[in-house]
Amino acid sequence: MTMKVIIPVAGIGSRLRPHTHTQPKALVPVAGKPILAHIVDGLIQVGLKDFIIVIGYLGDKIEQFFREKYPDINVHFIVQQYKEGTGQAIWMVRQLVDEHDEILIVLGDTIFDVDLKSVLTTPYSSLGIKRVEDPRSFGVVDLDKDGFITKVIEKPNIPKSNLALVGLYKIKESALLFDMLEHNINNKITTHNEFHLTDGIARMLEAGVKMTTFPVENWYDCGNKDSLLETNAILLKRYTDKDKEECKFDFLNTIIIPPVKIADNCKISNSIIGPNVSIGEHAIIHSSIIEDSIIGSYSHLENAVLYHSVVGSDAVLRGLKQSLNIGDSTEIDFK
Fold first, then answer.
1. DSSP-derived secondary structure letter, 14
2. Per residue in 32-80, pLDDT tens?
3. Which of 77, 111, 125, 153 is the most exposed place for a label (fewest CB within 10 A)?
4. Does residue 195 share a domain with residue 147?
5. What total number of domains does the chain contain?
């Protein structure tokens, strides 16, 4: 028996356009590395090495990412051509999971803080939860007095609890889950016109499977520009002095206001960078002021003033440059 990690990353990431026109949402950078790298690095640290990745839109870039960054792990790829929900995505990997294997399902667009070692040793199937103010956009769980799950429901109109599922599921009875998902697919049992993983789990509970929950301490959504930049700022605060020493970049007449993450081989001159800025490798920045932003690799910025911005890779931005001769009692307002 082994623990296999399943990560579905087949979505097109429409809320992060235009960045997801050219790369999968899971590879959008935050705090110096792709969203997916934050997830996979944490899983590898606790000894997990068998991965199944469900890909779709721009899936070749996901495959290339794993080949280059994680050559030592065992990884398989399954293509989800028709996006009919997370339940369908998980069901598609059934041939790659042995009957007695346990599985850890991790949604590929959310970075989380959780005690994974404790999760992996729990004797029951267990679902990651966090209290939220408005649970109507999430799967929601109800618990009995002993802490066992009595019910899960996807996006309820009138939630009975505020305990939201956050995209992290440890399932011991993997064969049963695949059977329940297959039943829903064959009988076209959907919620909001999709085959949801939550609905398969609900059928497991109805069959008498005992499930518990585990708390997810922090949960960082990267679904849109604002949440991506908020996550970037939070994660940059963890950037240590040792990390800073390992960076190799050139800068001249530049002020760095931490927290900032600058990748290798960048050239920065006559600029003010930070706070809350991450810059990809080989970027060139000249005479610019950048705050609370993510700048992609190989980008070239000159005379730019940016705040709360996301600039993709290989982008070029040249701002305005004025030469003024202003007399007494003059007011100029550039808007």
1. G
2. 888 899 999 999 999 999 999 999 878 888 999 999 999 999 999 999 8
3. 77
4. yes
5. 2
Rounded Cα distance, 135 and 158, in Å: 9
DSSP annotation of 194: B
> CA-to-CA distance for 152 and 140, rounded, in angstroms?
6
Per DSSP, the three-state class of 220 is strand
What's the predicted TM-score (pTM) here?
A: 0.86
Nearest Cα residue to 110 out of 139, 81, 136, 82: 139
Tell me, yes or no, whether 71 and 165 share the same domain. Answer: yes
Nearest of 233, 244, 236, 268 to residue 254 by alpha carbon: 268
Helix or strand holding residue 128 (H, E): strand 125-131
Containing structural domain, residue 19: 3-227
Both tokens of 1, joined, read: 């028996």
Nearest one of 291, 245, 250 to 268, comparing CA atoms: 250
CA distance 163 to 143: 9
Let me know whether 180 and 281 are in one domain: no
